[in-house]
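Extended Data, panel c. Modelled sequence:
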Amino acid sequence: MWKFILIITSGFCLLLLACSRSPYAATNKSYIRQVKEFSKEITKNPAQQTMSTAPLWVGTTNFNLRKPNIVVIHHTAQNSCDQTLRTFTLPRTQVSAHYVICKDGIVHHMLNDYLRAWHGGSGKWGAVTDINSGSIGIELDNNGKEVFSQLQLNSLILLLDTLKRKYNIPAANFIGHADMAPTRKNDPNVNFPWKQLADKGYGLWWSDTTGVMVPEHFNVKDAFKIIGYDVTDTTAVIQSFKRKFLQQEGSNTLNEAERKILYTLYRRYY
């Protein structure tokens, strides 16, 4: 608890200094005000919120802060970092992320990792149906069609390394927005180098399919489900899968070579 309060307090000092000269002074003050309100709520005596209150409150000594367990990577689908920063500081947009990484590699840490950003929306990964409550959202400045700059990717990899070590996030839980919401989203786009990330431990990748024999009983839908996809719409899942693991757009069927790729990947999760 005190760790959380110290984090918030130290953040206030830095933010107050920045607010006086930042073009985001007003929204920074709004951030501070909201976090203060959350801090007040957290430090309340829990007995005040209990339906049937014991005569003497007993607070446990065994607890810590909740930790994120999933990282969701997005592209902004906007035309600049400044446009995205403005979008994320307008209350009417109701959208945010923990991090925004610009094309030049500059990282904007917009929200404390322990707080809940509004980046995922409706979706599912494995058994998790409220992605926002257990995840960190990272937005990459990209209009949805561009190649990602190396400076941007370098910063992303450094950030992912920090998050993985800090929160002990499993490799399989570094995903794209399209993984958790295949019927709605296609980000990060087909140019995103998932293999480069997987080789460093941020995501899983398929192995060499030479000589692989796909079993006759292999069920594609079950394989997608084991990987983590919501298989309500298998056509959307196939498109998301091929965009990520084959860097292909358009097709909604799997040929035999692609079934082998799915099979080797499924074996990594199973």
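The mean pLDDT is 91. This feature is highlighted in the accompanying rendering.
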